[in-house]
């Protein structure tokens, strides 16, 4: 087992992190010991619960059969790098849609499924009366950006559901459901009305009230909408420090009286203290092409919320979370879905096959593709930046919204400090390869 | 605001002005200008597969006029390079595909997301009013980043390339390599009054190109003279009756003669073809040339015969101590005279041999009628005449006499034109294998009188309606002055680096990008540039299969060998050899 730990990159880095805080060799030894012992018992539980299963992979055969299907991959990108201040200025979520056996002209579609330029949030309105505070703190800014990204990614998925797409699978880069607790604070702003209409096309209510415009409600509406999708939707998370599976596994074991309350509490505390997480632990348990059956978990913990969000939190669907080891070198990826996979083996075979296309990275290749596409085209260099700046400036100008226009102008004029100092879009050189 | 966002998404950029009623077909937008364009060039982001290298594209732009006004224009440019990358196709994917033998087409990996960045070199701008005469003007301001790039419709591009040429007589040369739906024309007016250099390695399509233009000129009844050392143009004779029923096509073999006022050229040839002479011998030769008058138009062979006779007589007189007719050579010895006589016989036999070779070559075309070249001094109208093509077939002649023949011929014709006495109409001369007639100084011009003649035509011919087309596979070996006078070019495949350098040095507006294409051209692909065309264009020259001299064909050595039969002489020789061989083997004796 020590050998495994030593050979194991992510666990090893975790180990190093621990050692930095407690550099004594004794502590190091102890960490290894604890980890390997925990691995042993968790593995036993998983086996007892029949949660470990093998996923078959035969690349050639798989794709020959799968090529007739239509697949989608969704990821978002925000152009907040243009900003010197204020919330996301440009945000979008893109979809890569591919039907492998289709004629080349129609085989692939890169779609900017939802996008928005300007201020998403209503500067006038807030759910709660707050003291006027002109300085937004950084934390709030980050939260606003995160909420925007999460909203848009879900909105892209929702749009495909709304448009009645016939995908076999849609994979989303990232968790399918995020804990909303961080956004439940009284200072969190409302989305603008137009934004709601745009990202919730299915939202039938005639009068949109203020509460409807809060991120938590928007998100809840989207999530419940996409839960009804006729195609399979999975959220794929690559790097994760989450312990959600582990905790739920132990909880389940406790419920089934496989372990007692004392052991449960002790183990939970141990996991925290030793900074052990799902990924590192399961990397030691699963071998290549092995997976953990999804557990049904609750992502929202109502007791922790600010304000009056308990009802919403309870209305969020539960999430099914599993793990899949896609290669020998990487920790397993987390797989989330809103419904319990009916054809679990088949579904995981698909995720494995797309991940095997990136044999080192071990992550669904289509997500890698859309990740690159949704991001600003940094590979185009400065030239493209100039192009996009102009493009977004145009959009901003078309919006006729003074704040948007000013923030756009600021963003392209070197951080807004020196307006006359126009951005230098680089010249593209052939030699610079 | 959201609606605005969405609307902008669908909006097609720009070119509102272009979409006026004069445009018949819409232009497709193919990309967006990137980065920081400069006046001569810019880069743009190309939608996949919407254009290719060499294509001519259009950008909308605004240019300042002198008076502080700004006008809408179309900037035309050529795609010189495309950098394509499928940045969405992860490299490591290929490893798995290979190892697992997976067909990439079956997977979800993207195949078509090739992002391409095009480099464009600007050609000029036209006012934004398509349909009218599109005059291509020099650009004074860069295009703007973010602007739309359009792929011009066939008709509009064709009219840019051709109609604006300002030619009353456009003639078809071929099609654009990049867009085979577009015919390319050159200006016949500029071709006949100016000079065209056709270069390309052997087999690149020089003769095909030349015949193409010649054919078009024939349709205009323009008199043409072809200096044809290899017989590349004999094919036209066969087709003449059918294709050009009212044309006269004459095939000439050379006769070496000159007008008396140009006899020095003849004398120089005699000197150069003969043995190397010592000073006294040289004096005697000069004495002969001075004392035996060369009659205008006299056949060189006849004249040499007289010279030999006279030299022999003089030598005999010397031996007999007779002084009759020996004025000025009293001190010359009989031996000296004998050497000169022998040298003249060498000249005679060389010329005879060339004449014979030439004749034998003509006999390979029994169905063709060759005539002796008329005296270009006294009968130029037999060579240059409306609706006539005259082909001078020089095969068999070495380069010195060839040069002399061509020099005399062109000199006479040029003099007739420059005299302004209307004996012959304007005409067009095609000089094939020009390196033989206008070698550079480095190659040695001594004894090549055609250099001076062609130099003169290249500098003054324009005034007198003597057009020149110089065809060669070795441009760097050509006389520099003549080259500098060339103002139109057809450049076919060139692999030799010195030739490529020559092209670069000779032509203005030559960019390295074009030079890089030269070695890769297929047969008949080339660049047409200079005054016969509007813009330098990469063209696939139209191939007139019916004008190929099928008798010439490619050498078929394998067939030759298969049908090989030893001649009677060879057969006998071989059988004799066996006998001799026996004898020598039996020979035991040592030589003393
Ligand atoms: N424009 C063309 N289109 C098609 N084939 C061509 C073209 N030009 C040349 N070729 C081919 O190449 C051969 C050689 O062309 P030619 O003009 O005789 O070459 P060059 O005179 O440069 O030695 C031709 O016989 C023909 O087969
Ligand atoms: Mg030739």
Radius of gyration of chain A: 23 Å
Q: What's the mean pLDDT score of chain B? A: 84
| Lateral arrangement of strands in the main beta sheet of chain A | 1-7-8-9-6-5-2-3-4
Contiguous low-pLDDT stretches of chain A (5 residues minimum) are 81-87, 377-384, 414-433
- Identify the quaternary structure here: heterodimer
Number of strands of chain A: 9
Distance between the termini of chain B: 118 Å
What is the CA–CA distance across the termini of chain A?
45 Å
Shape annotation of chain B = elongated
The CATH topology of the largest domain in chain A corresponds to archaeoglobus fulgidus dsm 4304 fold
Heterogens = adenosine-5'-diphosphate, magnesium ion
What class do helices, strands and sheet pairing of chain B give?
alpha/beta
Number of folding domains of chain B? 3
CATH class of the largest domain in chain B: Alpha Beta
Taken together, the total number of domains of chain A comes to: 3
Query: Which two protein chains have the largest interface (Cβ within 8 Å of the partner's Cβ), and how many residues from each?
Result: A-B, 63 and 47 residues
Q: What Rg of chain B is obtained from the alpha carbons, in whole angstroms?
A: 32 Å
CATH architectural arrangement of the largest domain in chain A: 2-Layer Sandwich
Structure class of chain A: alpha+beta
